[in-house]
Queue: 2 jobs
Job 1
Amino acid sequence: MPLAAQLTPVVEAAFGLDGGAMFGIVPRPLWERTNPPDARNRIAMAARVLYFELGDRRVLIDTGIGRAWSAKEADIYGVALDEPPLTEKLRTLGIEPTAITDVILTHLHFDHAGGAIVDTVEGPRPTFPGATHWVQRENWVWAHGPSVRDAGSYRRRDFARLGDAVDLRLVDGHAAPFDGVELIVTRGHTPGMQLVKVRTAAQTVLYTADLIPTASHLHVPYVMGYDVYPLTTCAEKADLLEQATRHGWVLALEHDPDAAFVVPERRPDGRFVAAARADTLAGL
Ligand SMILES: [Zn+2]
């Protein structure tokens, strides 16, 4: 099986979401110690994508929040519209955006797929037109008819054109789209969210998307208020953390403001915590 070369996390944007919504039923005195809110009750979030090379593939997981936001929306979510876009940040790291062959979208919420389409003078265009885009069919269908509860997290402009403008692959369930990469489907956060498991020479890394958005969410009952089926999230999280600790997987966190990677461990009282955290795999 081919192994991925170095995994490169890229913070596409910093933003903020309501701390209460991020921790669901957990009272603020418990979460504010680790995730201090600002004056508008927002906690710091990263939109962190992950890039890696695998054989002749150049793969990007998620595309961040993008810059297609009104001034009012940018203010609500704390998005800095003048921050360099993802393509520029990739180039700074020596990654040529046009060389990306595959974009795996964990799901189509705006802070994951918002960077997939960019507004140009000729209108909206795919940011990575040459890349095959991988989405779970279940999430694709849901995104086109979300529930009243999560409709605010899906914006048509982020994905409406993907079906025509790029090679779009709708995946049905657990899959290995290519050697060395596995897609693991979860349904608690939103139907058809896919986590991405990548093998490197030294580690197995699981990109946990919104199942475990920050290190604070390693604790199983710390579930976001955004989740459509919170008890399903608890069961999925417990199952994957059990596997991760048993097999020594590293977790790649999409939204943690400080750490790109953590090593989970189970304390004697059963609670999962981060035994190590770092911005690079080598730093763990
Ligand atoms: Zn989400």
Note: The longest strand covers residues 42-54.
Job 2
Amino acid sequence: MTTTTVSPAPLTDPALLTDPATHAEGDPHAVWAWMRAHAPVHRQPATELPAFWSLTRHEDIRAVYQDGATFSSARGVLLRGAARGDDPGGGLTLALTDAPRHRKLRNLMADWFNTRAVRALNGHIRSATRAVLDRAFAHGTCDFATDIAGRLSLSVIARIIGVPERDHEDLYRWTDEAFEAHTSLLAHPRIVEYFTELLFLRMEEPTDDLVSALVHGTVDGELLTEEEAVLNCENLIGATENGRLALIGGMQAFLEHPGQWQRLAADRSLLPGAVEEILRWTSSATHSMRVAARPCEIRGERIEEGDRVVLWLPSANRDESVFEDPYRFDISRRPNRHIALAAGEHFCIGSTLARAEMSVLFSELLDSTSRIEQTGPVRRLRSIAVNGPERLPVRIVPR
Ligand code: HEM
């Protein structure tokens, strides 16, 4: 069994965390480790970003997630430049809505993401996985990020939303272009146009898909507006970026820890635990932001109404007071109380789906390949919102 223990070198400037280069080439874990020990509730003064509080401990982050009445999501859940103001999707999409509307909107979508729905989708996840792997086998080498993880996660969410199979390739190309350019999916005119057209089609002819539910479902007796329906579709596609990053980060973790891959190959009962460890290890959502809806105190620091509070998830998932030897990748880690998928009322609605995609992909890789090797350098995302490899060149040799 190969396990690596890496303790970060001391690095102490919290401002580094707002620089995308830190997450691409630097060592944000070293900064978070220092902050957990010395400044667990830290106020970052305004720059081109507005001032914000940083939380780095598991306990504090979990408590904020669980107190939606004090910590609002409606003005945005990601840090944005001060000049850009609040998120224009505030109050319109699931992630950017507070109770009680949030619960009602979530109920409209929940049926497509619960355990039963995901179980029913398992056959599709498996055939989509086999299709991307067959393509990779045919090429010999590929980029695990785009050719495998990206195609797989897009194909699954597109099916849930109700995008016909013939349009998956176009949608995949547009989202890949938007991710590549680091712009919002809304900046891609074809994506908005596409979902608007789909919406009108389902208005006339509803089917059993998520778009139809968004078009015909009501919240407090009112239909959603066209803007709300389109934004929620776009948001679901955007949210799968996290699922994609967990798949790529999981593969990278196994390539760096071949002993863990061999353990899994020898004992498949370790798979559910491996999925949880990948979620903890990769923590692909780098932060969630909340805005204080009323004054409060965290560890003796006074948070004023309107203050932004940033929750650094990868830090929570390396908190040494919760995880034994947190810098070790260990697929049999137990307990594993990670909060990579958030907590409380905004707990990731795609969690069951993301776990299913990981289980299927890694078990199919174990079944159908004799060797997987990295063929070039990994390139990490330059972003403070999500983190992980955006390029992972590999050679996959079938059995
Ligand atoms: C199939 C893939 C996924 C889909 C469709 C998805 C979808 C969503 C959606 C719609 C929300 C908003 C829920 C709400 O406000 O009630 C959400 C929240 C969240 N998801 Fe996921 N997700 C996926 C995978 C992941 C993965 C793999 C991670 C991290 C490892 C993740 C982390 C989160 C976090 C941290 C939140 C809370 C955001 C906030 O409210 O601040 N998601 N997810």
Note: Residues 73, 77, 94-95, 106, 157, 236, 239-240, 242-243, 246, 279, 284-285, 288, 340-342, 346, 348-350, 353-354 surround protoporphyrin IX containing FE (CB under 6 Å).
